[in-house]
Each structure stands twice: as structure tokens, then as C-alpha cells.
Amino acid sequence: MKIYTKTGDAGETSIIGGRVPKDDPRIEAYGTIDELNSFTGQAVCLAKESGFEELAQQLVQIQHELFDCGSDLAYARPREDKYKVSAGLVDHLEVWMDELEESNPPLERFILPGGSPLAAALHVCRTVCRRAERLTVTLQRDIESNPEVRRYLNRLSDYFFVAARAANARAGIPDVEYERSGKVFR
Q: Ranges for the Cobalamin adenosyltransferase-like domain (predicted)?
């Protein structure tokens, strides 16, 4: 099987049920989700290297769910009966965040992204996830698609933040507080 089809050479690509320009809002949104999936794969490798196996397993599950997000955004016409992302995916992210948060030190101020290599990678995931969320909001302003994808991405960025802090805590590396931050978390 050849991987190249030459069908995109004119600046269009296929989605489920049609073709659109490669800069269509659907392509921008799920393309950014694909980018996030790649960064998440990098974080999986770093989690395994640092012995944080339970986090690595969660991240692999998230990678599958990110494919589901992309699929749900790739319909030319809404197909609610085919959507894969549901409120249950948001629920399990919240459970994981609550478990990870137990080992995190109290948070009062904004923190700088970084610390351990795993935490730094998770902060990159968080910021790319926020961009994917913004693009999904823009998409859903004009094109109907699964609203649970937007909710999932919103919660997922929070998950990456909590996971980054847990990675630092587990590595014994304190988060670095933003110097000019007031106490914003209570």
C-alpha cells in the first residue's frame, strides 16, 4: 500500500462525508489535536523513563481519546449516533486529577512551566491542548459538532497541569512560582 494518494495536492483533504480545504476549521482543530497527541506520546516515553507507569498508562488512554476527539470533529455533517466522546471521558479525567492532586503540594501562586523533563513535556501538552480547545470553540461557533469534545479538551488541559505538578513532586523538584504573582489559588 502506498501512503501517498496525491488527492491533497490541490489543497483539499477528505473528512467523513466530504472534502474541504486544508485550512478548514475542522482540519485546524483536529490537526492541533493530532499535534497534542504527538506531544502526549513524548510524555508517555518520559513517564516510563521516570518510572511513573500509572501516569504512562493514563496518557496512552488519553492518546486513544484524542483520536476519538479528532474523529468526532471530522464529520461533514453531524452524526450524533457516531460520536465517541461522551461526558464519561470528562468524569474519568476528574477522578485521575483528584488522585494525582493528593501528592501535590499546596498551590497558592501561578507557577512557571518546567521542572523535571516529564513535567516540562506535560506543560507543553497543556498549552497545545488549550490551543486545540480554542480552535474547537471557533469551529463550533459556525459548524455543528460534538460539544463534549470541547468539554473534554477543557478538562484535559487541567489534567496536564495537575499531572505536571505530580511529576515534579514525585521527582522531588519543587514548582517554581511566578515571582510577581499574588496568591491566586485558595
A: 3-166
